[in-house]
Amino acid sequence: MKMGIRKPSVKKSLKARTTGKAKRAVKKAVVPGYGKKGTGWVKDPKKAAYNKLYSKTTVGVNPLPGSSKSNSFSNSSASYSDSAIATHYVPILVNKFVFAFLAIFLGVFGAQWVYAKQYRRALLYFLFCWTIIPIFMSIYQGFRALIARTDNSYKIYV
């Protein structure tokens, strides 16, 4: 059994990336068990055990950058778990003078983030208030808020 780093094959990697969706769809329709997980254990258990052990004991080096994953999922549970993990940042409008005042004078404790309703950041600032890091970050955020361009309502996105 091989252990260590796998030797990458550019030729095989390119062939695997250029196999079309139509060809896979035809094979899936014609060959029973094509594209299904776990069919290797039924057809050839010795080879499946070898491949499982080989993939666990060796490290792969991808010769081609990028990923060839398709955007569509075959089952709904996989798409649900991906959507549950992904987070989307929504900027919040706040008054620039209030945010800057809180950031400069009480920013060590994360007061500006409580005002902006970003409680995770506020908690991080509060937990690390004994270090010097939140001091510099809050002063920077306060002055950045003061010099940010706004309209007549003096609101900025944070």
Q: Which key terms come to mind for this protein?
A:
two-stranded parallel sheet; 158 residues; 2 domains; two-stranded antiparallel sheet
Please tally the β strands and state the result. 4
Low-confidence stretches: none
Helical content class: 55-70%
What does the largest sheet look like?
2 strands, parallel
Report the portion of residues in β strands: 5-15%
- Average per-residue pLDDT, rounded, comes to 81
Strand order within the widest beta sheet: 1-2
Distance between the termini: 55 Å
User: What gross morphology would you assign?
Assistant: elongated
Number of discrete domains: 2
Structural class: mainly alpha
Helix and strand element order: EHHHHEHEHHHHE
Counting DSSP H or I runs of 4 or more residues, the number of helices is 9
Rg computed from alpha carbons, rounded to a whole number of angstroms: 27 Å
Explain what the structure shows.
The chain crosses the membrane at residues 97-116, 122-140. Keywords: Membrane, Transmembrane, Transmembrane helix. It holds the Pfam family TM2. With 158 residues, the protein is mostly helical. The chain has two domains: 4-64, no CATH class; 93-157, no CATH class. It has helices at 10-18, 21-30, 39-43, 45-57, 76-85, 96-106, 111-115, 119-127, 133-147; strands at 4-5, 58-59, 93-95, 155-157. The strands form two sheets. A two-stranded parallel ribbon has the order 1-2. Helix 6 packs antiparallel against helix 9 (133-147).
